[in-house]
Every structure is written in C-alpha cells, then in structure tokens.
Write a structure and sequence with these properties.
The chain is α+β, with helices and mostly antiparallel strands. The protein has a single domain, classed as Nuclear Transport Factor 2, Chain: A (Roll), CATH 3.10.450. Helix content is about 20%, strand content about 45%. It contains 3 helices and 8 strands. The chain has a 6-stranded mixed sheet. The longest helix has 11 residues. The radius of gyration is 15 Å and the shape is globular. The model has no long low-confidence stretch (mean pLDDT about 95).
Length: about 130
C-alpha cells in the first residue's frame, strides 16, 4: 500500500482507485474525498514543484492505522502555489517539508487520512 501511495504522489502510473477508497474521510470526517479528486490535487503540487518527491522516513502500524513520518523535497520552479498560509511565487529555491500522516487502511485501500505538515520552509523561501 505505501509503495502505491508514494508512486501515485511521485508521478507514477498508479490508479488512485488502487490507493484510496470511495468516501475517504479527512481527520475522521465529516470531510470526504473520492479517488478521482486526488489527481487534480497532485497536479496542483506538480505544477508548482515539478521535481517534487514524497518519501516515508519511518512508519509504525497499530491495527488498521499507520503513522508515517514523511518528507517532501522539491524546487519551486513552476507556477504560483496557493496554500493555506498564502500565495507563494516561484523562487527557484529547493525546500524540504516534514510531515506526519496517519492513514487508516481497510481492504487494502486508504479510508481515512490525518495530516500535519510543516509548510514553513516553503513560505520562508518567498522572503529570502
């Protein structure tokens, strides 16, 4: 599952329906998304950061839940990135983001996702 997840987000030829279940909840609900909602999200990131690579540094499982310590590395050479903390123009600078995701898996598909990412390095680059 983790290999498929990373392959999908790293630009591989993976069908999101082979990674996410229908009605996948976010933070335990009530917000949900379907597999077909994922490619536009990936395209937004790839448009701003064409060389973006996601990786899992460490993980631990507890029942159906997996806690993932992750990193995302890339260079902002593409389009403007509109995130929760504001708008970031392309700087051409490399960055590394650290995050933790908890995913719940049933029937070999992700059915719930909790995320916490430190986006500060990306936003700090706009002032350097």
């Amino acid at each position: 599952m983790l290999e498929r997840l990373l392959d999908l987000w790293n630009g591989g030829d993976v069908d999101p329906r082979d990674v996410y279940g229908r009605g996948c909840t976010v933070d335990g609900g009530p917000t949900t998304f379907d597999p077909e909602d994922v490619p536009p999200e990936i395209a937004t990131y790839r448009s701003a950061f064409p060389d973006l690579r996601w990786s899992v540094d460490r993980w631990v499982a507890s029942g159906e839940r997996y806690v993932l310590r992750m990193q995302a590395t890339g260079t902002h050479t593409g389009s403007v990135f509109d995130g929760e903390a504001g708008r970031v123009e392309a700087t051409g600078q490399a960055f590394t983001l650290d995050g933790i995701e908890v995913i719940e898996i049933r029937d070999d598909l992700i059915v719930d996702v909790w995320q916490a990412w430190d986006m500060a390095p990306l936003y700090a680059a706009r002032t350097n």
